[in-house]
Amino acid sequence: MNPQAMIQHQEKNQAFSHLLRLPWSVPVGPRSKRSMTNFSVMAVAAAAMKAKEDEEEDSGTWVRGLPAVGMKRKGPMEEKGPMEEKGALLVEGYSRLAEAIASLGKIYEKVEVAKQRQMVELEKQRMQFAKDLEIQRMKLFMESQVQFQKLNRLKRNSQSSKCQKPDSLVF
Question: How confident is the model over 129-147, as a mean pLDDT?
Answer without folding.
Answer: 97
